[in-house]
Structure formats: C-alpha cells, structure tokens
C-alpha cells in the first residue's frame, strides 16, 4: 500500500497550496496496482439513479434519489384514488395538509437550526423578497444594500427591485463589492472595511452564508429536482419583532387554518411566512433525498468526505499539465496558450464542494471548446459564460474515480485544443 501523491514537477513552485501536502491530507490509501482510489466509499451511491457518465456538475439539478421517485409515485396513486381527501386521510401518514411537517425536522437538522426557525416553502427568489420585505427597512439616510458584485442575476434583480419599490435608484442604493484587481475572491477585510466606512448609510448587508435570515433552493445539492421547493431560516431572536408583511393562509395557525377565520394569526417563527400550501410532489421529492441525508448521518460525515473528495479533484486538476496558479492567471495575455486556473478559495473552510475553473485566455473561446469536449465524453459540469466551468463532486454519491475521469477528460480536451491550434 502507498499514499496517493502528486508529481511536484507538475506544480508551480510558488503555488499557494503544495499539492503533495494536499494529497497527504486526504488520508487515502491505494492498493498497489489499482488504477483508482476512493476517499471513503460513496455512502449512498445505490440510493440514487446514477448515469454511466461522470456527473460532477455544479449548481445544477442533481441526481434523483430512488426514494424520491417512489414517494412521488405513491402520491400520484393517492391523488388518483383519493383526490382531495388526501389532505386529511393518507395511507402512509403524510396527510397533505401537514406535508411540510415531514420535511421541516430534517431541514432543521441539516442546517443546524431549531424546527421553528425553518420553513419548507416557496422558491428562492420569492422567499428572498419575503425576507427583504421584513429586514430591509430603509430610511432617508440609511437605505443602501451591501452585496457581492455580479451576484446571481435573480438576486441582483431582487435587490434592484426592492430598492426601486422603496423609491431609490439601484445605482445609488446598491453597493457591490468586487475582488481586488488581480484577485478572484472578495476579501473579508474589504467587507468589514466597507461596513466601517459606509455603515451609517447601509440598511442591509447580504452575502452568501447562514445569517440572521437565510433562503435557499433545494434542487441543487439537496437533489429535490428542477424547480424544487425552497427553504427559509429566520433566527428565533426575531420571532416577536419581525412578523410577516405579506401573509397567506398557510402561515396561519394550523389549529384553525381550515376553519378559515377572517383574521390572520401567524405561526410563531419562520413558518409564519408561509403563504400557500406547498406542492406535495415537490415536497416529497425533497423528503426522499433528505431521508438519504439522515441515513448517512447528515452534514458531519458528509462534509468530511466532501472536503477529501474536492481536495482529491483539486490535486488531479493541478496535475493535468494545463493548470496555472491564480497569480499567473491574473497576468495572462491573449497571446498565451490555453490554460486554466481554479478561482475557488484554496482553504476548505472558505469553500464548499465546488471548484470553479477559469479558462484562459479570457474570452478566447477556450471554455466553450473544453465544455463541448466534456459533454462529448460524458462529463457534466456547469458552464458560466464566458470563461468558467464549475465542478462539484457530490459527497453522497460521487467517487474518486468520477474525479479522476473528469480531470483526465479536461487534460484530453486541452490536448485536443493544442493539437488543433
């Protein structure tokens, strides 16, 4: 037996993270003579419908859990045989009037919250608007929103529309922070510095991560399917002071909800923000996936495996011979040969499972060529035009072999591009 390692000759001497050290951190043994390793076997690969190709896509609808498919089929049968009575009489104890209650405890455990602090509801941008209606309370002097520059467009649209709704010009009301020149991530110190300098004018600070309120989608890493139901977290400290501004009957006290009283009585906590009854099919699709998360121990063991699996992919990508470090990438010129770098933070504490690959020279078409090649050989990534492909090994079901195949395919794509040039 031997530790897997990388070839130091293929790594830049000034790389911020030494590849050999990274590989040793994996604590992975490889049997002599074997061609692939695994970082702790995929704990739930058999629980998902896995295609024959190497699917390590990022921020795209992930694999369907077999349980989700079974639960959806059960609900379709109940719909067909019981119709509206499924709300109150369900052979599997999942009465539709309480369907979100099957998911709420699992969501709370997943994010490390109390049940009353989370709600299974809506969709990401709609939930974001609901939260901003409560937490964004601008005044004539304090009205600005501090956020990431070039955030996901739906987030940007929401921020801008909220500013306009309150009578402000988004160009003035929104402060976008960008990485410094020659860098690819925003420094924490720059966020803190901006708050120190402009805090008296800032009404809302909103970046990725769990904060006093948080919204998320579930169709990506939670495998609930395209357009799946969203989630919402509101810290219990706001339970009495931040009440729903735009209410609906599903946020009303469930003990009298179906009495349909004229006056609204909010459920205490996050679930008071619910408006309409959730889609049963979307909810049980999420339930099937969350049951798998529960089976494997939730985030603790999954995060541990994810750190190792993503680090393994990072090592392999650095070994392709076409990787350059981010410092070199910042100075790359249009005349330089096709290469790529990784713009995701190197410290695992500062990233999730995803690695974002920037293809160079920028706006040269290199990314498009690599992406097309990857699709031809069955590696499914997530392109972000003009120059980024995001790869995410999912710790529930991806394997080290998936990572090896993806890295080898990227290497072959560059070899094909080089030969063509």
Question: Which secondary structure elements does this structure contain, and how are they paired or packed?
Answer:
Blueprint lengths: L1 E2 L15 H7 L3 E2 L23 E2 L10 H17 L21 H8 L6 E3 L3 H12 L8 E5 L4 H13 L4 H4 E4 L10 H11 L3 E5 L6 E4 L14 E4 L45 H16 L3 H20 L7 H4 L9 E4 L12 E6 L5 H11 L2 E2 L1 E3 L3 E4 L8 H21 L1
Parallel strand pairs: 3-12, 5-6, 5-7
Antiparallel strand pairs: 1-2, 4-9, 8-9, 10-11, 11-14, 13-14
Helix pairs in contact: 1-9, 2-8, 4-5, 9-12, 11-12
| Tally of strands | 14
Largest beta sheet: what is the strand line-up?
10-11-14-13
- Spatial shape: globular
Residue-averaged pLDDT: 88
What share of residues is helical? 25-40%
**What structural class is derived from the secondary structure elements?**
alpha/beta
Helical segment tally? 12
Q: What's the Cα radius of gyration? A: 24 Å
What share of residues are in beta strands? Answer: 5-15%
Report the biggest beta sheet as strand number plus sense, adding barrel if it closes: 4 strands, antiparallel
Which spans have pLDDT < 50 for at least 5 consecutive residues?
1-36
Give the N-terminus to C-terminus distance in angstroms.
42 Å
Name the helix and strand elements from N-terminus to C-terminus, one letter apiece.
Answer: EHEEHHEHEHHEHEEEHHHEEHEEEH
Oligomer: single chain
């Amino acid at each position: 037996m031997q530790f897997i390692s990388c070839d130091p000759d293929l790594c830049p001497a000034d790389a911020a993270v030494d590849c050999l050290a990274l590989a040793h951190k994996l604590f992975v043994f490889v049997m002599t003579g074997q061609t692939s390793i695994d970082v702790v076997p995929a704990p739930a690969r058999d629980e998902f419908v896995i295609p024959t190709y190497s699917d390590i896509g990022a921020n795209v609808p992930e694999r369907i859990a077999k349980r989700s498919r079974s639960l959806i089929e059960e609900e379709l049968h109940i719909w067909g045989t019981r119709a509206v009575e499924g709300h109150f009489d369900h052979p599997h104890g999942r009465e539709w009037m309480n369907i979100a209650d099957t998911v709420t405890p699992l969501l709370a455990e997943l994010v490390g919250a109390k049940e009353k602090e989370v709600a299974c509801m809506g969709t990401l941008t709609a939930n974001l608007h609901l939260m901003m209606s409560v937490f964004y309370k601008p005044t004539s002097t304090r009205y600005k929103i501090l956020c990431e520059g070039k955030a996901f467009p739906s987030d940007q649209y929401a921020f801008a529309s909220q500013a306009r709704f309150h009578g402000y010009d988004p160009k003035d009301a929104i402060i976008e922070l960008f990485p410094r020149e020659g860098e690819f991530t925003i420094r924490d110190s720059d966020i803190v510095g901006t708050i120190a300098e402009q805090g008296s004018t800032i009404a809302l600070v909103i970046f990725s991560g769990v904060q006093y309120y948080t919204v998320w989608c579930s169709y990506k890493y939670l495998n609930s399917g395209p357009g799946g139901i969203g989630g919402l977290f509101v810290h219990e400290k706001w339970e009495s002071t931040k009440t729903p501004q735009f209410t609906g009957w599903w946020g009303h006290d469930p003990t009298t909800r179906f009495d349909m009283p004229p006056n609204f009585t909010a459920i205490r906590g996050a679930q008071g923000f619910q408006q309409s009854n959730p889609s049963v099919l979307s909810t049980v699709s999420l339930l099937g996936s969350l049951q798998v998360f529960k089976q494997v121990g939730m985030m603790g063991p999954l995060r541990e495996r994810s750190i190792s699996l993503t680090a393994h992919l990072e090592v392999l990508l650095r070994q392709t011979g076409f990787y350059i470090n981010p410092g070199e990438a910042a100075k790359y010129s249009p005349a330089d040969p096709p290469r790529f770098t990784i713009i995701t933070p190197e410290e695992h504490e500062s990233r999730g499972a995803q690695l974002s690959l920037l293809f160079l020279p920028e706006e040269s078409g290199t990314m498009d060529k690599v992406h097309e090649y990857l699709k031809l050989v069955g590696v499914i990534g997530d392109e972000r035009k003009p120059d980024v492909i995001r790869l995410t090994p999912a710790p529930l079901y991806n394997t080290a072999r998936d990572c090896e195949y993806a890295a080898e395919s990227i290497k072959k794509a560059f070899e094909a591009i080089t030969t063509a040039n």
